[in-house]
Specification:
The chain is mostly helical. The protein is built from 4 helices and no strands.
């Protein structure tokens, strides 16, 4: 049961993927702005589509396989969006704690200063 896939220019696809990767690197090296991040994600989606359609031959597969892949990606997106509030909240809490630490010293800093003073006095 061997299915024949249409002829694919793998070297050409590899060159396109390499150039897209290089563009992603250049975009992040030039700027870390929101526009650069969006540009890198757009390139990543285009590369993923190219790999799915050409390397994995999804473009020639039956419709049921395409629906299965699309529904899996949709489930992944729903999971990501469902977990994102927890991740963002936790990250912002960590930043708040680290900012508080920078402003007021680390927890227990006063006690460490007291001990340091007694050690200096003992010398």
């Amino acid at each position: 049961m061997s299915e024949e896939h249409p002829e694919t220019n793998y070297v050409g696809i590899w060159i396109i993927l390499s150039v897209a990767f290089g563009l992603s690197l250049v975009a992040t090296a030039i700027s870390a702005s929101k526009v650069a991040v969006v540009f890198v994600f757009v390139i990543a989606v285009m590369k993923a589509f190219l790999v799915l359609s050409r390397f994995m031959h999804l473009s020639t597969e039956p419709r049921v396989i395409k629906v299965l892949v699309a529904s899996s990606l949709l489930a992944l997106l729903v999971l990501y969006l469902g977990l994102m509030p927890d991740i963002v909240w936790e990250g912002s809490r960590i930043e708040f704690v680290s900012l508080q630490t920078v402003e007021h010293g680390s927890p227990g800093q006063d006690e460490q200063d007291k001990h340091a003073g007694t050690l200096e006095d003992a010398k």
